[in-house]
Amino acid sequence: MSRQHAAGCARRLPKRIILVRHGESQGNLDMSAYSTTPDYRIPLTPRGVEQARAAGRGILDVVSSGGPDANWKGAFYVYFYVSPYERTRATLRGIGAAFPRDRVIGAREECRVREQDFGNFQVEERMRAIKETRERFGRFFFRFPEGESAADVFDRVASFLESLWRDIDNGRLDPSTNCETNLVIVSHGLTSRVFMMKWFKWTVEQFERLNNFENCEFRVMQLGPGGEYSLLMHHTKEELEEWGLSPEMITDQQWRASANRRSWSEECSSFIATFFDNWVDPPEEGEGDGDRQKQDDGKIKSLE
C-alpha cells in the first residue's frame, strides 16, 4: 500500500475511502421543513437514526474483512470526516456506535463536504419551480438563487482533496504500518457524487448521468494492487450500472482495479476519445510504406 512520491519518501495510502450519505432526514419526508428550519439544522428521523446504525455495522463488516473474529483486533483503523450539518453529525454518531474506540483514530468536521447551498430558508413551491428549471438548464452548472451550483461544490471538494493529500503525505492518517487505514466521509448525495467526479476525472456529461445515493447508502473506493482506487474492488458491475455509470466509465473502473498507476498515460484513455471526432489510430509500423514510396516516386518523376 506504499507508493513513492518524493526522493527517499514513501506514503501509505488508505486501503479504502468510503463515501456515506446521511440517513433519512425530516427534510426528506417533508420539504416544508426547509421553510422554517435552516438546512444545516434539519435532523434525522427515527428511521434515519436506525439507518445510520445499520450503515455502521455494514462499514465495520467491510473494513474488518468479514466482521470481528479472533484475528480482527489491530487489523484496521478508521478516520472520519463529516459535514457540519446536524443530519450528517447524527449519522456519524450512529455509524460510530459500531466501532470499538481503539479502532477510531480520529474524526474531523469538514465544512467543504457540506451540502450544496440552496439559499437560506426554502419556500416549498418556489423550490419546486427552481428545481424544474434546473432540470432544463443542467444539474451541474445551474446555480440556485442565493445558493450554489454543483460546479461551486466541485471547487470546494477539489480544495478538500488537496488538504486530504497533505494529511496522507504527512502521515496524519496512518498511525501504524501494521494496520490498514480506512477513510469514511459522511456527507451528502450531490457532494459525494462530485467527490467521485473529481477523483475519477469524470466529465460534466458523465456526472449528469449519475443517480443519487440512497439515505445511508455507502460506496467503497478501494485501493487496487497497482495503486489506483476503484469502485469495482468492492462493488459489482451491475451496481455501477444502477448508479448510472456508462460503459466507458465502468471500463475505466475495471482498468483501475488492476492496472499499475505508472502506466496510466499509456494504457488508460481517460475518456480522451470523447473530446475528438473521427479519432483514428496511427498505422502500425511498416504499414503505409508502399503508399509513401509511390508518393516519393511521383515527386521524382515530376522533377525529371
UniProtKB/TrEMBL annotation:
<dbReference type="InterPro" id="IPR001345">
    <property type="entry name" value="PG/BPGM_mutase_AS"/>
</dbReference>
<dbReference type="InterPro" id="IPR029033">
    <property type="entry name" value="His_PPase_superfam"/>
</dbReference>
<feature type="region of interest" description="Disordered">
    <location>
        <begin position="278"/>
        <end position="304"/>
    </location>
</feature>
<feature type="compositionally biased region" description="Basic and acidic residues">
    <location>
        <begin position="289"/>
        <end position="304"/>
    </location>
</feature>
<dbReference type="InterPro" id="IPR052765">
    <property type="entry name" value="PGM-Related"/>
</dbReference>
<dbReference type="GO" id="GO:0003824">
    <property type="term" value="F:catalytic activity"/>
</dbReference>
<dbReference type="Pfam" id="PF00300">
    <property type="entry name" value="His_Phos_1"/>
</dbReference>
<protein>
    <submittedName>
        <fullName>Putative phosphoglycerate mutase DET1</fullName>
    </submittedName>
</protein>
<dbReference type="InterPro" id="IPR013078">
    <property type="entry name" value="His_Pase_superF_clade-1"/>
</dbReference>
